[in-house]
Amino acid sequence: MAKSTNSTNKKKGTLSNSKPVVKLKSKQTSKTVHQKNIPTDTKKERAREKAIEKSRQAQKTTVAKKKKVPATIHLTNVEAVNIEKKTKNRQENTVDVLAKSSVKPLDKEKKVKKDANTRTNSREKETKKAPVSKTKNQDNKKEPISKNKTKVPEKKQPVLSNGNSSKEEILKSKNEKSFVQPATPSKVSSTKKKLSSFLSFLTTKRIIHLLLFIVIAFLLVYGVYFLFFRKNENVSLDSYDSLNSLILDGTDIVAVGSSNFRYSDFVSYTGGNEQAKLIKYNKKGEVLFETAFTDGIISQYYSIVEVDDGYVVVGSYQLDPDDQINIGLIVFYDKDGKLVWKNELATSGNTIFYDVDSVSDGYIVVGQSLSDQTGENGAVIAKYSTSGSLVWKKYFGSTDSTAFKAVEVAKDKIYAVGLDQKDMGILVCFQLNGQYSWHKEYLYTDDLGLSDIYYFKNNLYVVGGKKVLDSDSTDNERITSNTDALILKYSLDGELLFEKSFGGSNLEHYNSLTAYGSNLYVVGYSNSTDSGLKIFTDGVKKAGIFVKYDLDGEMEKKTVYGGSNDDNLTAIVTDNSNLYITGYSNSKDGNLLSSHENGRDYFGKLVKVDSRLRVLFIK
Question: What is the per-residue pLDDT for 186?
Fold first, then answer.
């Protein structure tokens, strides 16, 4: 449509009124357009615009000189806003005056544009009615027009609603920015004021009150927990895990104990009941497998012995939750922890097997059996065949406190140690067929009696605990809270060769011992704060102790294992180079930490140390 219009106008010579308007708005064509083609009215209008622009520049300079704010003066937000408003009003008044003065030229220009557009539209209508055939002459006439359009592009300037050009709006925005910028320092100062007011709010008094509130809230929460959980015996949040005995199988370590543990990665201990367990480690202390005895309600393993093709373990379990009677238990596992067979010894009362040792054709088991049947009460010793059948059983003593705690087979004899009549330690010798030979008594032991026996270099070494009493104490005065750990040396005929004790003003007890080279190594517990050991308990909870003796009973070194809660070392073995110890702990501090320690749950422990009692690992 545009092509036909331009060609028609070119023919009739009526395009003179529209071209000046385009050239007037384009700055790029000012050099190429001839002066004679510009109308007189347009020249006057341009002169008027120049004059208006000069007056604006002069007024801008005057206003800037009068209202210039030094950069070093920090204005408040209110002052900055007032200055901005005044300047804006002045600029608006100036723009209004300039707009009024330029109304007539602009109206005249609009009129010229309107006439040109009217003539163009009429020509377009005529062209539509009578189509013009395209000829070479017409095509040649169109080319100069297209070139002119390329050379003289129409550059449109945005026009405001009031008729003013965008230059005035840009000038206005620049002036506004120049007056807003000095308010920036006031924003910084207001931020500083807010910060200073906040810091002034945090006075020392308020901080102290806040800390006191936090402490009181913590004590209240802990008090509620203690009253409703820790004091209630029927609601316990504690988990229990213990290792009671261990052996070495080549480079592997095999231990037994009991657990209701929620942290086990191998066994799901269901119902929260304590279950006997067997666990095997490699030489680095990494668990190879763990298995639990799931028959009955509650069960424990107390001792283990290695045989050619597996392990024999002993303990007890409860079959009926209503009767709560323990049944003596002997179990055979293969080397992979699979249960092969089990047997049990049950009476009308509790029966517990505490220790086991092997002979060529079976296993010797000792413990305690309580019964209302004549001749079936007190300490019990029994022999089982390699297939688990009972061969014979014997009883010693007739009181409910009599029990065998440990057994050792040496030189074709069976030696058992334990407790008789509450505080009388006993060492009893049997033949391999179960026939009684002799026994020795030790006065006065603690309530646990003699706990372990070890055959080494043609002698018997026994450990336990003894009461610390005056020499003239009577039977009624033998109740005391002061006991010492005890180590005794016997000949194979029962002759006492030496007696050594260790302890402070509270409780000490030795649980187990082993020997190699020229030394004895003993483990147990203590809660005395004046025994010469650095014990961090409150005098009630136990700390594990580890003592090194020579073969004559002279103490060479002693150390503590544990923290500020309850710790106990239960058994020790050796490979004639290093020492391996089992026990349990619920301390969340000290030197027995391995993982998960929280000061509430009990964790079974495996510790490896060298001959100088330096710890190699704790698991």
Answer: 59
**3-state DSSP call for residue 359?**
strand
Cα dihedral across residues 108, 114, 117, 118: positive or negative = negative
Structure tokens at 511: 């649980």
CA atoms within 13 A on the CB side of 410: 18
- Taking only the tens place, the pLDDT of each residue in 359-416 is 999 999 999 998 877 778 899 999 999 999 999 999 998 788 899 999 999 999 999 9
Torsion of CA 461, 467, 473, 478, to 10 degrees: -120
Cβ atoms of 395 and 379 closer than 8 Å: yes
Q: How many whole angstroms separate alpha carbon 513 and alpha carbon 534? A: 22
**8 Å CB contact between 482 and 528:** no
Measured in degrees and rounded to the nearest 5, phi and psi for residue 514 equal: -150, 175
* Distances 9 to 5, 6, 147, 340, 503 between C-alpha atoms, Å: 6, 5, 16, 117, 127
Locus of tokens 């069976």: 414
Q: Please state the φ and ψ torsions of residue 519, each to the nearest 5 degrees.
A: -135, 155
| 285: alpha, beta or left? (left if phi > 0; alpha if psi -120 to 50) | left
Rounded alpha-carbon distances, angstroms, from residue 491 to 221, 411, 457, 520: 60, 12, 10, 16
Q: Are 282 and 296 in contact (CB under 8 A)?
A: no
Residue 137's SS3 state is: helix
Between 121 and 440, the higher pLDDT residue: 440
Compute the CA torsion angle 79, 84, 87, 91 (nearest 10 deg): -170
Rounded Cα distance between 262 and 598, Å, is 13
pLDDT score of 537: 77
Tell me the CA distances in angstroms from 523 to 254, 351, 464, 541, 557, one per residue in order: 18, 27, 10, 16, 12
Q: Which residues contact 531 (CB under 8 A, 6 or more apart)?
A: 502, 503, 504, 508
> In the chain, what is the greatest distance between 2 CA atoms, to the nearest angstrom?
151
Please give the Cα distance from 422 to 447 (Å, whole number). 6
Beta strands in 191-274 (DSSP E): 241-249, 252-259
- Asked if 533 and 505 touch (Cβ cutoff 8 Å), the reply is no
Whose CA is closest to 518, among 576, 453, 434? 576
Which distant-in-sequence residues (6+ apart) come within 8 Å of 282 by Cβ? 251, 252, 253, 288
Question: Could you give the C-alpha distances from 356 to 22, 30, 415, 449, in angstroms and in order?
Answer: 118, 119, 12, 18
Residue among 525, 510, 513, 597 nearest 241 (CA): 597
CA dist 76 → 175, 194, 207, 469, 590 (Å): 19, 15, 34, 90, 63
Q: Which of 13-27, 174-188, 258-272 has the highest mean pLDDT?
A: 258-272
- Per-residue CA distances from 434 to 11, 359, 396, 415 (Å): 144, 13, 11, 11
**Taking a C-beta distance cutoff of 8 angstroms, is the pair 528, 508 a contact?**
yes
Question: Across residues 323-327, what is the average pLDDT?
Answer: 88
Q: pLDDT value at position 103?
A: 44
Residue entry with tokens 């005395």: 528
Polymer length in residues for the chain: 619
Q: Which long-range contacts (CB under 8 A, 24 or more apart) does 85-89 make?
A: 87/63, 87/175, 87/176, 87/179, 88/172, 88/176
Vertex 112: Cα angle to 110 and 118 (nearest 5): 100
